[in-house]
Every structure is written in structure tokens, then in C-alpha cells.
Write a structure and sequence with these properties.
binds heme C, 18 helices, two-stranded antiparallel sheet, Cytochrome Bc1 Complex, Chain D, domain 2, single chain, 3 domains, mainly alpha
């Protein structure tokens, strides 16, 4: 927007911009007038539009959303929709970093999260492009590591868990290890409310953009959309899955046999685990794919993410270089969704939303699929890949030998 019309004084202007930017990231934050409009989503839905049309449509949508949800410094919540966030906590997390008279800290999101997730929660903070995987864009309303099935929102405790424990093997830090004070536990709780707020705001914005592209009445639609999105969050707890006693209290009488049975399930056609994770679980499978955040503006918009000439023009709307969401090397044991058998069970049973990893086919009535006992054995096998059993058939040696062959 600026670049086309900067007069000769532009070096002074750039200096001001640099000063503003450094103040911004050192915590003494200036006012954040608005959330950044979602131009990438507009551009992927309306490919023939000029840059100016994209920018105007994105701004229009953003204005409708701002009426309902306010700005980064003054968030609000529409009274007509389900009351799924605590606005006192949202306000503590929002705005510039600082303390009030009683020393309570404010601006938690800008202090702890913004460098990666961006003020808008679009996953486009200044550090984002350097990270693999990229930080989550909350605006899609999808989360990967949760206790609810694909298509359902995470529960509050799912988000709290992610914030406390982080996502091992990614840039997402564990905030629970920083400080165990009562205040910090409260901060995490407040931040989880703010993630919800940003996610609802961003998903409503995406859907308002679709409404405008489809020439519906955006102002009227915005409220209807907002209440639908809020309702989907309100329902999350009712979909939360608890691992069965078979998993939580299981003490195998013969662990090696359970691992062998699990391995056969892992290699089977029915689960296809090894197609993606490789026969040895080391991530060397044949199937390679992108996540939904990338497909959203590439494949769904008719752009081939493997062809630079096709995706590169989308960078001007904020797209980051497409990176494959590869199946994990399970021998490394950095389970992002948690390292207990219960956590691994949930990942296998529920899949990982937004990633290529599907939920397992479970045996129900006459449907072909894996029984609960089979899933338990599979969990044991997956677990053994990074925690080799020392007695018995020494799976770690066998693994090493096969691995050399396959290379
Ligand atoms: C150093 C960068 C970094 C910082 C700081 C950071 N995150 Fe993240 N965050 C990430 C990355 C990277 C991912 C994506 C990991 C993945 O896809 O496996 C992520 C993912 C998430 C997710 C998605 C979890 C899911 O189930 O999909 C949430 C929620 C989240 N972060 C919240 C926060 C909050 C709140 C803060 C501040 C308290 C924060 N993050 C700070 C990098 C960061
Ligand atoms: C279509 C490909 C595909 C299939 C089939 C598949 N996975 Fe995955 N799996 C993935 C991808 C991709 C990831 C990484 C997802 C991410 O974090 O974005 C993953 C991640 C995982 C994780 C890591 C979870 C964590 O907390 O970090 C486990 C465990 C796992 N898969 C086990 C399995 C098992 C067991 C099966 C068979 C029942 C299976 N997968 C089938 C693609 C697949």
C-alpha cells in the first residue's frame, strides 16, 4: 500500500518504521488499531480480483468483524452469541504489555506469543517464516492436538495442556515450565481464553469473506456466522474422548507379544500406518502431503504448491512458502500431543486435524476395523519405537539392521 506512493523522504519514513518495529517487539507496544485483514483468504476465493479489490474486500469483511469483536487493544464480545470466553481474561491477554496498579500483568499475548503467532493469531509473527512447522494460524478454527474428533473444537483443557506442555519438536514452547506460581497458572488460563477469542474472530472473518464473495448480506450474515462458530466451541466438551480403562490401567502380561501384534497392525493395509510412517516407523513412507492451512490457499484455489511460479504470487498477501506436513519419525519419540500412552491412544483414535494423519478405522458391529485390544497393541508398538523394550526380543537391534538395508 505504501510502497507505490512514498515520496523522496522515504528513508526518514523507513527509520520511523524501524523504530516503531523495534519498540513493538521490545514490549513497549504502540496502539494496535486493527487486526490485520485476511487478504490471503480473499485472494484464494476470488482469483480474478485486482490487488485493490482484494484489499478492499478484506477490509470490508474486517470492518464487519470489528463491529462484533473489537480491536487488539479493545476486544469485545457480541452479547447475542454464546458466552464462551471470559472477557476479563481476554482483556488481560489483549493490548500492550504492562501492569495495573495492583501489579497484575496485562498484554500477555503480546509478551509471550505474538513474535510467532502474530497479533491477529494468523501465525505470521516476525519469527514465523524461520520455523518448521510454522506457528498455528488460529483463524482457521482448527487445532491438531486435542481430545475431540476431527471437525470438533478443542476443549479448554486441551488448549491449557498445549500451553503448559508445549509441542515438543516444534517452536511452540512449554509455558508451564517457566513458572509454577499461581499467577502463571492464571496467565495460561487467560491465554487459552484469548486463543479462543482470536480463533472465533478469525473464523468468523473467513466465513464473512465467503458470504461477501457469494454476494450475501454481510452485516446480517456476520451475526449468524458468529453465533454458529461460538456454538461449535460451546459444544466441545461433549465430544471429548477419554481413553478407556483398557489403556489407562493396562499391565501387559507379555509386552513383547503385544508389540509384535501391534507391529502387524501397523504394517496392515487396513491402517496404512506404514504407507506414511514407513515400515520401520521412521517417517520414510511413500505418502507425502500438505496440511490444510497450506491446501487452503493452494490446492483449493487451483494453485500447485509444488510449483513456485504458481504459489509465489500469493506471498504478497501473506502466504508462507508451502512446506510438506510429513509423517512423523516415530523412533524419535517427540510426541507433540503428549508422551503418555493415553495421549498416543488419542492421536491414533482421533487422527490429527488439519494434517494428513487420519483417525484409525475402528471395528464397530460388522464394519472392518481395529478392535480396542488391537489399538492397545498398536499404542504399545508405537511406544516401543522410541522406548525400546530392553528384555526379550530386543526390538532396537532388529530395527537398526533393517534400517541399514532400507537406506
Ligand atoms: C517460538 C514460537 C512460538 C511461540 C513464542 C508460541 N508458539 Fe504457539 N505454536 C508455535 C508453533 C510452531 C506451533 C505449531 C506446531 C505444530 O504444528 O505442530 C504452535 C501451535 C500453537 C497452538 C496450536 C495447538 C494445536 O493443537 O493445534 C496453540 C493453541 C498455540 N501455539 C498457542 C500459543 C500461545 C497462547 C502462545 C503464547 C503463550 C504461543 N503459542 C507461543 C510456535 C510458538
Ligand atoms: C496419510 C498418512 C498417515 C497415515 C495413514 C498415518 N499417519 Fe500418523 N502421522 C501422519 C502425519 C502427517 C503426522 C504429523 C502430523 C502433524 O503433526 O502435523 C503423523 C503423526 C503421527 C503421530 C505423532 C503424534 C504426536 O503426538 O506427535 C503418531 C503417534 C502417529 N502419527 C501414528 C500413526 C499410526 C499408529 C497410524 C496408523 C493407525 C498412522 N499414524 C497413520 C500421517 C499419517
Amino acid at each position: 500500500m505504501f510502497s507505490k506512493q512514498i515520496p523522496p523522504l522515504n528513508s526518514f519514513f523507513l527509520l520511523l518504521l524501524a523504530l516503531w518495529a523495534s519498540a513493538f517487539f521490545s514490549g513497549c507496544t504502540p496502539q494496535e488499531a486493527s487486526f490485520r485483514p485476511n487478504e490471503l483468504h480473499v485472494a484464494s476465493l476470488s482469483q480474478d480480483s485486482t490487488d485493490q479489490q482484494v484489499s478492499e474486500l478484506a477490509k470490508t469483511a474486517s470492518n464487519h468483524v470489528e463491529e462484533l469483536f473489537g480491536t487488539p487493544d479493545s476486544p469485545k464480545w457480541p452479547s447475542e452469541i454464546a458466552d464462551i470466553v471470559d472477557m476479563v481474561k481476554v482483556k488481560r491477554s489483549a493490548g500492550p504489555v504492562g501492569r495495573d496498579k495492583s501489579k497484575v500483568e496485562y498484554g500477555l499475548f503480546r509478551k509471550h506469543c505474538v513474535q510467532c503467532h502474530g497479533t491477529t493469531g494468523d501465525g505470521q509473527g516476525p519469527a514465523a517464516a524461520l520455523l518448521a512447522p510454522y506457528p498455528r494460524d488460529f483463524r482457521r478454527g482448527s487445532f491438531k492436538f486435542k481430545s475431540t474428533p476431527i471437525g470438533k473444537k478443542p476443549t479448554h483443557s486441551d488448549l491449557v495442556r498445549t500451553l503448559e506442555k508445549g509441542l515438543p519438536g516444534t517452536g511452540m514452547p512449554a509455558f508451564g515450565t517457566l513458572n509454577h506460581s499461581v499467577e502463571f497458572a492464571e496467565d495460561i488460563d487467560a491465554l487459552a481464553h484469548y486463543v479462543r477469542y482470536l480463533s472465533v474472530r478469525g473464523e468468523v472473518e473467513r466465513r464473512v469473506i465467503s458470504a461477501i464473495v457469494n454476494q450475501e448480506n454481510a452485516a446480517e450474515q456476520a451475526k449468524i456466522i458468529a453465533s454458529k462458530v461460538a456454538e461449535s466451541w460451546a459444544m466441545a466438551d461433549s465430544f471429548s474422548v477419554k481413553p478407556p480403562r483398557l489403556i489407562t490401567t493396562w499391565v501387559p502380561e507379555d509386552q513383547t507379544a503385544a508389540i509384535e501384534r501391534g507391529k502387524a497392525i501397523f504394517l496392515s493395509e487396513l491402517t496404512a500406518c506404514s504407507k506414511c510412517h514407513g515400515k520401520l516407523g521412521d517417517g520414510n513412507g511413500t505418502s507425502q502431503d500438505y496440511d490444510e492451512w497450506t491446501k487452503d490457499w493452494t490446492i483449493r484455489a487451483g494453485i500447485d504448491p509444488n510449483k513456485k511460479a504458481e504459489w509465489k504470487p500469493m506471498k504478497r498477501f501473506g502466504a508462507l512458502k508451502p512446506v510438506l506436513d510429513s509423517a512423523r519419525n516415530l523412533t524419535l519419540g517427540a510426541f507433540r500431543g503428549g508422551e503418555t500412552r493415553e495421549d498416543v491412544y488419542l492421536r491414533i483414535v482421533l487422527g490429527i486435524e488439519g494434517s494428513p494423519m487420519p483417525a484409525i478405522a475402528r471395528k464397530e458391529n460388522d464394519n472392518p476395523g481395529i478392535t480396542e485390544e488391537g489399538i492397545r497393541d498398536l499404542v504399545e508398538y508405537v511406544y516401543s519405537l522410541s522406548n525400546p523394550v530392553t528384555s526379550g526380543a530386543a526390538p532396537s537391534n532388529e530395527k537398526g539392521a533393517e534400517h541399514e538395508q532400507s537406506n
